[in-house]
Amino acid sequence: LKDLEDFVERCEWRPQEPVAVDVENPTGPIAVIGFSTDPSISLSVDMTEGYWGTENLPKAWALVKRFCEGPVEKILHYGLSDSYKLALHGVGLCKYIYDTMWMHHALDAADRHSLDYCASRDTRQPFWKSMAKDPDESARYSSNWQTFMEYNGIDCCVTRELYPIYR
What we know:
Blueprint: H1 2-13, E1 19-24, E2 32-38, E3 41-46, H2 49-68, E4 74-76, H3 79-87, E5 96-99, H4 100-107, H5 115-122, H6 135-141, H7 145-166
């Protein structure tokens, strides 16, 4: 909780620096929420009761809510989906100003706009999408939580890296 609280406070001290946000929910409720302040680093937070326990999970959600509804500008890739998932948990998404999928669409409406495609065209990020997201692959990685968390972190870093390119 202290790491998450420190992260939220650091972001609040510098609200003019946009933060990439990504949500993962492979089986229904949000399992992981990730953040990236810089393309080289991310914070992926396990949002399951199994990790936090019944006493600390509401505290973790309160910190996520504080960040998401706070003054920091947010960057997402297809954030409409993530904002809907967060809303199901009672979390609003304020200052959601940048969406790299729609930014890319504005640059070339006829092109594809998936995160992996954008990354392959505009960054040097090696392909990572088969790690844990693909339905056929997710069963393979469902027991490897660390891989799933890393996958989320990479999504956040790539989104953060694409933002200044498309802006």
